[in-house]
C-alpha cells in the first residue's frame, strides 16, 4: 500500500524528527536525494546546464543545496531567485562556494538562462504554498514550457495544492517530482497529479502515523482481497450477484454489467430487467428472470442503475434489499437519498464527475477541480462508500477513513460502457463478501489494469475491457 499524508501531518512528523537531529540535517537528506535524482535524469552531470528556480522558503533551500552538490560534480548551476532578500541563506552560500551563480528573476536574463538549460529544478514553493504561482513566476514558467529542459520539481510542482490536488491558477509542469518523507495527496489526485510527472519518494526518516490521508493499493494488497473458491465452495457460497440494469433503449448496459459481474468472482449472476434476451444471447450462463428484483431469488449483492432509464420502482426495490447494493448511472439519479441513508447493509455509489455534480448540486468543474472534497462529501451525505470515477478514481467510505486512490487507471477507459463493466465487477466482489471499500477499490484496480491490457496503446471498447479482467486478475495474483 502506498500512502499520502496531509501537510499538517508531515509538518508534525518533521518537527518531531528535527528535534532529535542536528540543525539542517533533514534538509541535507532532502537535498542529497534531490541531487541524486537530478544526476540520474541528466545522465552526465559534468558540463550540464542546471537552472534552479528558488522561492522564499525551505523548498528553495533544498534546491540550492542540491544545486551545490551538482555544481561540485561539474554542472554549470545558475540560481534564479524569485525573492532575493528571503532566499535560504545557508543554501545560497553553499551554492556560491561550489561555484554556482545567481541570476535576478527580473529583466529577461533569467528567461534566457532557462532557455539554455538542460535541467530546471523547481524550488519555488513546496508544502508551504497557497494558490497558484505568483505573477513574478509566470514569465519563468512560460520560459520553462518553451525550453527543452527536463523539469524536476522539489517536493511538489509549484502552484498545486498539496492537500487537495487542486490547481488554482498557474502551476509548473514537471517531468519528475522528488518528494520527501511521504507522498502528498496532491501528487496522487488530478488535476495536480498531472503536473507532477513521475514521482520519486526520498526517505528522510519521517515517522508517520498509522492512518493516512490517502491510500493507493498495489498488486499484493489486491491479491489478498480477491476471493478464491475453497475446495468446498459451491456457486452459492461464492456469492450470487443480481444485476438490475438495462432498458429497451439501452440493452447494452445490461450486457456489459453482466460481463463485468461474470468476471468478478461471484458464483452466479442473476439478471432482472427488459434486456434479458440480449444478456442471454451473449452470456448463456446468466440466470435471467422476468419478475422484479424481489422475485429474482436469493442474491448476496445487487447492482442497480446502468442503462436503467427511468425505472425508479426497481431502484427503490433494490434499495430495500438487505444485501450490499451498488448504485450506478441512472440509479444514482433515481435513488431517494433518504432510502440510501436508511440502508443497513453496505451501499456503494459509483458516479462520474457529472453525476457527482448533480448529486451535490454543483457544477461538474467543481467536482473535477476538487475531487477529494467531492467524494468525501458524498460519502458523508449518503452514508455510503462512494467511488468517484474519472481521470483519478477515488473511493471514500462514510466513516471518514483514508480515501483510496486508484493507481491503475488509463484514459483509454474513457469509452462508452466501461463504467457498466466496472459496476458489474464491483457488485460481484461485493457478493463474494468483500467489504464495500475493498470491493470498490479492488474493482477499480482490476478495471484499470484491464483497460490498459485491452488498449495496449490503441483504442479499445468496453467489452474488450471486460474480456481482459481475467488477465488483470491473473497478473495481480501471480505477481
Ligand atoms: N521542514 C523540514 O524539515 C523540511 C522541509 N523540506 C522542504 O521545505 C519545504 C517547505 O518549506 P517552507 O515551509 O519554508 O515552505 P515553502 O518553501 O513551500 O514556501 C513557503 C514560502 O513560499 C511563499 N509562497 C506561498 N505560496 C506561494 C506561491 N503560490 N508562489 C510563490 N510563493 C509562495 C510563502 O510566502 C512562504 O514564505 C518542503 O516542501 C520541502 O521542500 C525539506 O527540506 C525536508 C525537510
Ligand atoms: N481520463 C480518464 N482517465 C482514466 N480513467 C477514466 C478517464 N475517464 C473515464 N475513465 C474511466 O472510465 C470509466 C467510464 O465510466 P463512465 O463514465 O460511467 O462511462 P459509461 O457510463 O459510458 O460506462 C470509469 O471507470 C472511469 O473511471
Ligand atoms: K516545488
TrEMBL record:
Kindly state a single biological-process term from the GO annotations of this entry. metabolite repair
Q: Does the keyword Transmembrane apply?
A: no
Q: InterPro entries recorded for this chain?
A: CARKD, Lipocalin_CS, Nnr, Ribokinase-like, YjeF_N_dom, YjeF_N_dom_sf
One Pfam entry for this protein is Carb_kinase
Entry's EC annotation:
4.2.1.136, 5.1.99.6
Catalytic reactions on record: (6R)-NADHX = (6S)-NADHX; (6S)-NADHX + ADP = AMP + phosphate + NADH + H(+); (6R)-NADPHX = (6S)-NADPHX; (6S)-NADPHX + ADP = AMP + phosphate + NADPH + H(+)
- The YjeF N-terminal domain sits at 10-212
UniProt protein name: Bifunctional NAD(P)H-hydrate repair enzyme
Q: Which organism is it from?
A: Streptomyces fungicidicus
